[in-house]
Each structure stands twice: as C-alpha cells, then as structure tokens.
Fold:
Amino acid sequence: MRTNDFRKKRKQMVEGQLKVRGIRGERVLEAMEKVERHRFVPNDLKPNAYDDEPLPIGSGQTISQPYIVAYMTEVLKLKGEERVLEIGTGSGYQAAVLAELVKEVFTVEVYEELSGRARQKLSELGYSNIRYKTGDGTLGWKENAPYDAIMVTAAPAKTPDPLKEQLEDGGRMIIPVGQAFQYLFLFERSGQKIKKKKLLPVRFVPLISVQ
Structure:
C-alpha cells in the first residue's frame, strides 16, 4: 500500500474507531493519527494495521486494538512533561504514542527479541526520548522511579506491589488485572494512599514474571 493510503486509513481509524467511542483528548487523537501503526506489525499484516482489533507480533504477544491504546493513554491525563513507565514494550507502538505526548518514556519488555526489534524500529523513526530495558516487568524499573504515570500492557493476576511503590505522588497507573476475566483499573496516588477504580472489561496477554 502507498503512504497516502495508510494516512487515509489512520484518519478513518481516528474518526471511526476513536472519536465515536468517546476519545476526546486532542493531543491523544493527534498522536494516534501521527504514529504509523503499520510500521509496527509484521509485513503480511500491514494491510490490516488500522483494523479495529489486536494483531499478533510474535513471541505469543499482540499489538493492542487502536481504541484500547487511545483509551489507556487518555486515562493517564498526560500534559507533556511527564516521565512515564511502560510495562510491556511489545511492538513499540504504544511507546511511540506515549513518546509523542510526554518528556520521557521508560519501557520494559521481558522478551529480548521483541525489545531489540522495538528499539531498532523506534530509533529508525527518530524517537530519542525512550529508554529500554529487558527484564521482569512486575518489578518495574526502580532505578528511575518514581514515575508520573505507569501503563501496563499485559495482565497480571494481581497488581504488582513494586509498580504501586514506583508511582509518584499525584501519579496515575492504568493496568489490566485478572486471568479468566480481566478489567482495566486506574490507580491514583495521593501521599501514602492509593485509590483504585475499575474501568472496563478487557482481554490482554498475561504479564510474565521471571522470578
């Protein structure tokens, strides 16, 4: 497909999948229209890159449905100067969307192959505000904590304590939790207290711990 065809599909995705479902943040919508999702999927799936569904990316992992990417991003209420921790680099697509919106992204991926591929792709696309780590996402990335926001793109059975501990005062974390049934939860820290809010049912791959 030609570049113009992909650009048209991105615009259709924003109009037909995001706005109609209530995504309103202008910065989020602009990032979703700018980031080229087709660059983050296998070659044989590029024609489907802007479809309303998750797609496989290898190692048993997926690139999330565009609406879920936009929804999780919008819920974090990012202003532009945040330091954000992402758990589950995957293809690198969500990291690219975040990098359009914040000062710095720290992303952790358990699969070395996926992490390396995402790093190469994001570097090729000119992103210089993303830092990468291969390791156990349930442990977060303590060396660079605390974070203004945390996004988790795979589902643990329960919310890992290290992630809650690495959240800055006033910070927000969005995370899918559960096994047979999963929900997105929003955590908000205020001093030593953390509020928890259930958002909507979802389906993510499991968050793998290597401990």
